[in-house]
Every structure is written in C-alpha cells, then in structure tokens.
Amino acid sequence: MLLVLLGFACNGNTAVVDAGIDAAPPQDVAVDSPVTKPDAGVVCHDGTTLLSTNVMLDRLGIANGFVYARVNANAYTPIGVMRCATTGGCTAATSILEDAGASVFQDYAVGGSLYTTFLDDAGGGSVHAAMLDGTNDQILVADASFPSWVTTSGSNVFWVSDAITAGGTSPSVVYCAGCDAGSAWLSEPAATYAVFADDRSVYLLADDGTKTTEGIYGCSLDGGCIEGGARTLITGLVTDLPDQVASDGTYVYVARNDHSTIVRIDTTNTATNFVTNVVALAIAIDPASGTLFYGSVEGGIYSMPTDGSKPATELATCSNATINSIVFDATNVYALVDGTNTNLIYAAPR
Q1: Which residue of 22, 135, 225, 273 sits 20 to 30 Å from the alpha carbon of 254, by its own alpha carbon?
Q2: How confident is residue 14, by pLDDT bands cut at 50, 70 and 90?
Q3: pLDDT tens for residues 168-226?
C-alpha cells in the first residue's frame, strides 16, 4: 500500500451537505530488523508522549490500559505487535508477538483477546487468539488460506483470505471465526486493504474492479452474504489505508483525501461530506459519545460530534509530522505521530 501525502490545507472546517458522491510469553526485546530512523525533533503540544521511537509503526489498537501498534520491517512488511501502557507511558514498547519460523505475521486486532493472522510461504496460514499480553496463544483457524486482515465485533472474529494480493486469482473472502466455525461471510474478486466491523455489520475495503480505485462492501452480522445480500457502499475511492475508514453502526466514515473531505455513508449507501477542507490520514468513531476523531496530514488531532452540532475542536497539534492512526478510551485520544525521523504514540485529553 502506497501512502501519498497530499499538500492541502487542513483547517478542519466542517459542513454537513449533500455530496453527490457516488487491526510465547512477552519479553522486553526488540523486534527483528524493523526499519529504524535517526532521531529528529517532532514537537507536540497539549498532550503527553507515551512513546518515542525510531521504529516504523502503524495500525494502533487499544485494550485494557494499553495502546498496541503493528511493527514493520518496511512500508509493506509487518513483523509483529508492540504495546505501551496508557498510564505512565514507556521508554521502549514491549514486543509481545513476532514472526515465528516459516509463519509470517500479517495483522492483529484487540478486543477481549489479542487476535493475529500468520501466513506461510505456500499460501496457508493460521488465525490465533492470545491473552492481551501475548501469552496463552491458541489457534482459532489452523488451515487458513492466505490470511491477511483481521478485526472483531463482540465475540466474533472476522479475517480475510486474500490470494489476489499474493498473486493468485481466487476471490478474497471474509470469514467469521466466532459465528459458525470457518463461516464464509463476504466475498469480493479483488485485492483487499482492510476489514472493519461495528455492532451491526462487517465491511471490506477492496479494489472496486478498476485496479486503480477502491470500494467499501458490507454485510450484516445477522448472516453471511456469500449467497447474495452484500452492500456496495461506495466505489471510486482513492483510499487504501485501514486507518482511513471507520463505522459506528449507523454510518461508515471515509477520509477522501483526493476530495479533502471526510464523508459519511448512511444505510441507503448515500454519501455526504461531513468534514471539509481536511486531509485526514486517520479517523476513529466513538459510538457511545457520538464523537468523530481524526488526525490531519499537518499534524492536528481533532474531535467533532457526529450529530454535526458543533465544529471540529483541535485537541492537540504536532509540528513536522502527520497523524497516521488514532484510537481512544474514556479519557484520551491516542495518536500515532509520524515525523520525518521519529514515531510517537501521543495522548491528548478528549
């Protein structure tokens, strides 16, 4: 996945108008051969730095008082999971899962457990569940085919079989590991870029058939859509990053950076501009409070009520950096701040 930073203004002005547009016991050890970056100055205001590192991170998650991040060997190769306490921070994040032998780590998600996917050279692989500290690892799916993305909704674990990204031709399939064992849930004949879910539906961000733009496809949690019933929420997106999509059970939100907007899509698959004049690399939704959080390419961290009753509020700002991932708890918003030479996990009061 290629990250393109577009040089637009990020004022966070908002409007709600018709748009007309169609994630062995733990040890404090370094991960194997991650990309490192020489130290440099990223300056943030109005919050607290939990971690400063020259290791390449992405895909924040949060559970049980820890912020999690995926560790990468390069821009295209994830190799493990690290975590850092939300209280007190950490001088070095704890490496809790890494590649194991011929099985290569792909993705993770956190909920009641830590869920991971691993791929081997022959296209096989497995889906795992472990305690949130990485211990007591158990195999959920032993014979997974081309496992890649993983997400959770309650007790359900959804994972993606994506042979196309690996050079194959079989359609990509979303499986549910907590519904009926091995249940195929949703299928698209395309490369995939994310799977995400809320308390009503699971969604797949995938190529829309053009091989140049992407679409979002959804299926109710009430039953699979292999035999039909899948929704096409939107196509023509220039959005292939997992952190640029989110949902709250009613709306799906997408950062459309080619339009300098964050749009939201309702249950009739109608998209409207929700935040304008912003290039957002990361968004997250808190359904309980009705709050959208987003991070801009210019380093701002913002919140906005999803009812549109107030304009966006800047919670914190970081110079010489972009905000590449966002998660939250009841107290703070946690951002992955990507500077030219340094990554921060940064906490800002919400």
Answers
A1: 225
A2: very low
A3: 889 999 999 878 655 899 999 999 999 999 999 999 999 999 999 999 999 999 888 99
Place of tokens 């850092």: 84
Contact 327/284 with Cβ under 8 angstroms? yes
pLDDT tens, 116-171?
999 998 889 999 999 999 999 999 999 999 999 999 999 899 999 999 987 888 99
HEC sequence for the chain: CCCCCCCCCCCCCEEEEEEEECCCCCECCCCCCCCECCCCCCEEECCEEEEEECECEEEEEEECCEEEEEEEEECCEEEEEEEEECCCCCCCCEEEEECECCEEEEEEEECCCEEEEEECCCCEEEEEEECCCCCCCEEEEEEEECEEEEEEECCEEEEEECCCCCCCCCCEEEEECCCCCCEEEEEECCCEEEEEECCCEEEEEEECCCCCCEEEEEEECCCCCCCCCCEEEEEEECCCCHHHEEECCCCEEEEECCCCEEEEECCCCCEEEEEECCCEEEEEEECCCCEEEEEECCCEEEEEECCCCCCCEEEEEEECEEEEEEEECCCEEEEEEEECCCEEEEEEEC
Nearest by Cα to 336 from 38, 63, 65, 84:
84
- Amino acid letter, residue 39: D
Tell me the pLDDT tens digit for each residue of 253-273. 999 999 999 999 999 999 999
User: Which CATH number does the domain 14-349 belong to among 2.60.40.1180, 1.10.2020.10, 3.10.620.30, 2.120.10.30?
Assistant: 2.120.10.30
